Amino acid sequence: MHIKSVELSHFKSFGGTTKIPLLPRFTVVSGPNGSGKSNILDALLFALGLSGSRGMRAERLPDLVNQNHSSRRGTSEANVTVVFDIEDIPTEFLTDSDIAEDGADNGEDSGESASSEVGEDSSAEGALNGTGSAGDSPTNVVPLPSSSKEWSVTRRLRVTSQGTYTSNYYINGESCTMGQLHEQLQRFRIYPEGYNVVLQGDVTSIISMNPRERREIIDELA
Amino acid sequence: MHIKSVELSHFKSFGGTTKIPLLPRFTVVSGPNGSGKSNILDALLFALGLSGSRGMRAERLPDLVNQNHSSRRGTSEANVTVVFDIEDIPTEFLTDSDIAEDGADNGEDSGESASSEVGEDSSAEGALNGTGSAGDSPTNVVPLPSSSKEWSVTRRLRVTSQGTYTSNYYINGESCTMGQLHEQLQRFRIYPEGYNVVLQGDVTSIISMNPRERREIIDELA
Amino acid sequence: RFRAFQEAFDAVNKNFQSIFAELSDGDGYLQLDDPQDPFNGGLNLVAHPKGKPVRRLASMSGGEKSLTALSFIFALQRYRPSPFYAFDEVDMFLDGANVERLARMIKHQAQQAQFIVVSLRRPMIESADRTIGVTQARGAYTQVLGIDLQPKRASL
Amino acid sequence: RFRAFQEAFDAVNKNFQSIFAELSDGDGYLQLDDPQDPFNGGLNLVAHPKGKPVRRLASMSGGEKSLTALSFIFALQRYRPSPFYAFDEVDMFLDGANVERLARMIKHQAQQAQFIVVSLRRPMIESADRTIGVTQARGAYTQVLGIDLQPKRASL
Ligand SMILES: Nc1ncnc2c1ncn2[C@@H]1O[C@H](COP(=O)(O)OP(=O)(O)OP(=O)(O)O)[C@@H](O)[C@H]1O
Ligand SMILES: Nc1ncnc2c1ncn2[C@@H]1O[C@H](COP(=O)(O)OP(=O)(O)OP(=O)(O)O)[C@@H](O)[C@H]1O
Ligand SMILES: [Mg+2]
Ligand SMILES: [Mg+2]
Fold it and tell me: Which residues in chain C land under pLDDT 70?
């Protein structure tokens, strides 16, 4: 399984809509200071709900909308879509709501009405750790042909001119709660506290962290 | 005024005694990871009393003694001597105790018996901000010939096998208190909270610091 | 629960030892404060680079800390791989020789997972399967250019 | 006391503006929370690199933050120089072009004060008047070698 593409619309320094294709194995992202490299990683954290706004260097979510874009309109919006290639995932890991065959609509709604994060300040981020997981049963598995399987996550942030905002998640185009998204990501071994994303300046934090916290990393995996 | 040499004895990764000559203007220190570059800067902080043990990456002062050296004896000792070239300092900045002409003994003791930091743990470092400045009067100035003037500071750390330690400061070979050393350093515009030493990983701390702290930096200089 | 932890700990420890040896050419291992009751204490990283006696973690150099931390992350990865890893300038403290060692290790680990690594260092760029270039014209938006992507994706 | 502060603030602000423009090719200045009563508030750094609108400090990139912080340090230096400055890898986040800009600025500031700069970056090493090499043989002590020191001090 790997990320196939990241599409950013009006997100941080990405003014229009940019789709970045990604391949398996080893990719380097490089370029001058301030060009937007770290912002691409912030986009992954944003779309997959893996971090609060501070972890994306924003004081509050509205700071994530491209400033040029938001200054010209009443309500502005930032979107990020991450598409995973899941061809090599054994079917028992997937529910039928996981499997979108290149955009085909898969019927069953993978969640109730989106639990939107609505807020005027970043205290809404306290809701980060999941808002319930009703509705998705991991035993609801339908074997599917193994051609070109994709799994996509989209997050849309809308900000009004007064500064209030809503944030919504979608799996394969169907709205879902952040909790449901996290539950499915967990089955793919992607966790908010996972050490698979190391942000700029953080590499030595594992050294300076408290030993109990470090032991809890192993608890999580066990 | 500039640093003319730094001599390290049994300090951190410096096993024997190494004297490093330094010249004015722009010097780069380079070499492989773990070779000892940052330790040289720690030696400057150590000798001039500009930092607690934590700022030198030591949990407590005894950690600063070269481990090889300390493991072979009952009492071990680490020394650092920093020699400044003060030829260009107008004499009114100097007291006669400042001016040592290439090792000549200058008579007057520049301090009472050294206020030793004696301790078994790093709570002794709380004393960092000066222990009094009795004895030195900045108006006690004697004009001197302007040839080859030096000003040297030595700090000696002695550690017993039980782990207790003493730390003593000397200016031009005469013992002094840390407070007296700081007072003289201040006249040379060297301060413990000064921003003339930026440690590894700290460059962006000015950005993340609290605005009031940042304003206090200007207070200090004014 | 204790058994699940112990199994995870032993596996990660074994990985850590071999990865650390390869990355920093030294000896390192994981140590529990309380091996009888791990949940009663924390987890320590014991590391001593090439022939030096064991050092406290705090006194390690910037480069040594980076390699130790990365060895731990790779040890976790070999036990429970995530599908992707995203590293932002984790090589910033490393000297040229260590950047090469790290790049080689990432290339090896990338057989099991996708690695997206932000880096300014040449040995890292040269070891990658491809580079994505990111630029920002004066005052304008970020632009992304694929460099060395496979031919059908060479331009965005 | 207020006047002493105001004088210091204005001088440092003026320095900051010209240094920031040189280092990051953008506009930056210092701003007091409360200009009428500075001691009632803090000091903010307002920075917007090349043609971008003013950005919050937090959202700046690693390289942009480094250049902004260094501009502030140099601004303080031009007002109240210390006899020496010791920088440990302050260029770690900078791309090649910015390392060169910084190296040139240090060379210029070094006319007034002694700079001892730990760095692994080539443009920094090439701009220096001399380099001191530090190595550590396997398990042995740090050794210091003078490289390019003036002839009479070429070996230690
Ligand atoms: N909401 C926003 N609108 C427009 N630009 C933004 C927004 N948020 C951040 N930026 C800009 O994005 C740039 C930072 O991008 P990023 O951190 O990705 O750079 P980088 O390529 O990682 O650089 P470095 O190599 O210095 O780390 C900054 O110049 C910042 O001003
Ligand atoms: N008391 C001590 N006795 C012996 N060695 C020590 C002592 N304290 C620290 N060291 C060693 O000094 C080394 C660190 O040196 P230093 O931090 O100066 O490296 P560096 O050249 O700055 O490396 P980097 O480029 O990675 O930052 C470490 O290997 C550490 O183990
Ligand atoms: Mg960055
Ligand atoms: Mg270092």
Answer: 51, 138-139, 147-156
Report the alpha-carbon distance of residue A69 to residue A78 in Å, rounded: 9
Return the HEC string of chain C.
Answer: CHHHHHHHHHHHHHHHHHHHHHHHCCEEEEEECCCCCHHHCCEEEEEECCCCCCECHHHCCHHHHHHHHHHHHHHHHHHCCCCEEEEECCCCCCCHHHHHHHHHHHHHHCCCCEEEEECCCHHHHHHCCEEEEEEECCCCCEEEEEECCCHHHCCC
Radius of gyration of chain B (CA): 18
Positive or negative torsion for Cα B155, B158, B159, B165: negative
Q: Give C-chain residues touching B57 at CB under 8 angstroms.
A: 58-60
Contacts of A209 (CB under 8 A, 6+ apart): none
Question: A13: which DSSP letter?
Answer: T
Between CA D77 and CA D113 the distance in angstroms is 9
Beta carbons within 10 angstroms of residue D139's beta carbon: 12
* Token reading at B217: 């930096």
Q: Do C63 and B57 touch (CB under 8 A)?
A: no
Confidence of residue D151 (pLDDT cuts 50, 70, 90): very low
What is the residue-averaged pLDDT of chain C? 88
C touches which chains (3+ CB pairs under 8 A)?
A, B, D
Q: Does residue A129 come out as left (phi exceeding 0), alpha (psi in the -120 to 50 range) or beta?
A: alpha
Element (H, E) at A215: helix A211-221
What pLDDT does A95 receive? Answer: 57
D48 — contact with chain A (CB < 8 Å)? no
Q: Per-residue confidence at B95, pLDDT binned at 50, 70, 90?
A: low
**How many other C-beta atoms can be found within 10 angstroms of the C-beta atom of residue B71?**
10
Nearest ligand to the C-alpha atom of residue A204: 2
Least confident of A158-167, B26-35, B90-99: B90-99
Confidence grade of residue B220 (pLDDT, cut at 50, 70, 90): confident
Structure tokens at A86: 């899941």
How are strands ordered across the β-sheet holding A197-198? A197-198, C84-88, C114-118, A26-30, C130-136, C142-147
Closest in D93, D96, D139 to C52, CB measured: D139
Mean pLDDT of chain B: 79
One-letter-per-residue 3-state SS of C31-52: EECCCCCHHHCCEEEEEECCCC
B204/A204 touch (CB, cutoff 8 Å), yes or no: no
If we measure between CA atoms, which residue out of D25, D24, D46, D43 comes closest to residue D33? D43
pLDDT value for A20: 96
* Confidence (pLDDT) at C26: 87
B141 closest CA partner among B186, B108, B113: B108
Q: Which of B81, B80, B75, B82 is nearest to B158 (CA)?
A: B75
- Contacts across the B-D interface (CB distance below 8 Å): 216
Burial of D150 (C-beta count, 10 Å sphere; 0-12/13-18/19+): exposed
CA distances from A133 to A48, A99, A167, B25, C41 (A): 16, 19, 18, 64, 32
Euclidean distance between the first and the last CA atom of chain A, given in angstroms as a whole number: 21
> Cα separations (Å) of A111 from A104, A107, A127, A170?
17, 12, 17, 9
Nearest of B20, B160, C67 to residue D155 by alpha carbon? B20
| pLDDT score at A91 | 64
Nearest to A157 by CA among A171, A142, A139, A170: A170
Residue nearest to atom 27 of ligand 2 (CA): C62
Q: Would you call A156 helix, strand, or coil by DSSP?
A: strand
| Mean pLDDT of all residues belonging to chain A | 79
Contact B192, B200 (CB under 8 A): no
Question: Between C53, C58, C63, which is nearest B34 by CB?
Answer: C63
Tell me the per-residue pLDDT of B169-196, one tens digit each, with 9 for 90 and over.
999 999 999 999 999 999 999 988 778 9
